[in-house]
């Protein structure tokens, strides 16, 4: 029964793996609900600051913030948001594939790139492909904190203000529902007043509210717009990280559920093979006994 003993060992090993994947599925399901609540809680702030920024961009055309000015630098920046841990299906692979395609397109146009990595997986990937990583933020935990993101992101924002990069792209995974997450590569800078206005109108259409604001600036329009647009960009990055974390837990829960189901199928197949092997051994022993009795 050496073969039977070996099969029993495999069954025990797969059962232990199944317990681990089931536990990870339950943990991811618990964290997913909290991550979704944080993501949804951040959305009203992002929508409101987008509305205000769009209205200010239209209301004060005599001052143009550096974030809304296009320059001729032959360099682009990328903020790549991924997870710190694996075991979440193809989520990181999908967003990094989008990053690779964007890098290829920029290289074909003769534009060099520099990147910021948020998350261990993206940081490791950018180092492997030889990309220029100017800053990174890892080990963010289960809750995104804006103070941990401002420093790394500010490196690219300052570079854009100085005219060293001509555009900044934000790459992350957008949460749609538990079963679907969408990789996104969107332009963060330069900001377009028309695009912000379009987003603001979309928000108004969704909420059914229509407002036309006239602002009183204190201390002056330039100081207000400077602070607001920086906060607006930071809010977009924070929202992207929150969406990515919600997507991570959803993808991990689905991946671990699939792994648990597959482990159950493997156990059933191994048990069937074990029973067949055991039955064959019993039949062989009975045949030998009968043959021996007949010979006597």
Summarize the structure in words.
- With 296 residues, this protein is an alpha/beta fold.
- The chain folds into two domains: 1-28 and 254-295, Helix Hairpins, CATH 1.10.287.80; 41-204 and 212-252, ATP synthase, F1 complex, gamma subunit (Pyruvate Kinase, Chain: A, domain 1, 3-Layer(aba) Sandwich).
- It has six helices and five strands, in the order H-E-H-E-H-E-H-E-E-H-H.
- The chain has helices at residues 2-59, 91-108, 120-128, 146-161, 193-207, 221-295; strands at 75-81, 112-118, 133-137, 167-177, 180-189.
- Strand 1 (75-81), helix 2 and strand 2 form a beta-alpha-beta unit.
- The longest helix is centred in the last third of the chain and has 75 residues, at 221-295.
- The chain is elongated, with a radius of gyration of 28 Å.
- It starts with a helix and ends with a helix.
- This is ATP synthase gamma chain.
- It is found in: Cell membrane; Membrane.
- Belongs to the ATPase gamma chain family.
- Its main location: membrane.
């Amino acid at each position: 029964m050496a073969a039977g003993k070996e099969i029993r060992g495999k069954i025990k090993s797969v059962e232990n793996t199944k317990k681990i994947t089931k536990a990870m599925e339950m943990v991811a399901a618990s964290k997913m609900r909290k991550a979704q609540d944080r993501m949804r809680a951040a959305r009203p702030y992002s929508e409101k600051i987008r509305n205000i920024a769009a209205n200010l961009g239209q209301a004060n055309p005599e001052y143009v913030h550096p974030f809304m000015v296009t320059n001729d630098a032959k360099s682009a920046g990328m903020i790549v948001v991924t997870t710190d841990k694996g075991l979440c299906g193809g989520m990181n692979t999908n967003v990094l594939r989008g990053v690779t395609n964007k890098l290829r397109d920029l290289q074909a146009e003769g534009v060099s790139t520099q990147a910021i990595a948020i998350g261990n997986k993206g940081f490791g990937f950018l180092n492997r492909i030889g990309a220029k990583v100017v800053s990174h933020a890892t080990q963010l935990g289960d809750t995104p904190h804006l103070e941990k993101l401002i420093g790394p992101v500010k490196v690219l924002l300052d570079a854009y203000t100085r005219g060293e990069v001509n555009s900044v792209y934000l790459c992350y995974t957008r949460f749609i529902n538990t079963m679907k997450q969408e990789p996104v590569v969107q332009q963060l800078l330069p900001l377009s007043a028309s695009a912000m206005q379009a987003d603001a109108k979309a928000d108004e259409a969704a909420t059914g509210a229509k407002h036309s604001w006239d602002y009183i600036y204190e201390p002056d329009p330039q100081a207000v717009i400077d602070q607001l647009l920086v906060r607006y960009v930071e809010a977009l990055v924070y929202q992207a990280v929150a969406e990515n974390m919600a997507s991570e837990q959803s993808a991990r829960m689905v991946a671990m559920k699939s792994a648990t189901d597959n482990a159950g199928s493997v156990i059933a197949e191994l048990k069937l093979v074990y029973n067949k092997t055991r039955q064959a051994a019993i039949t062989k022993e009975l045949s030998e006994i009968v043959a021996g009795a007949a010979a006597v």
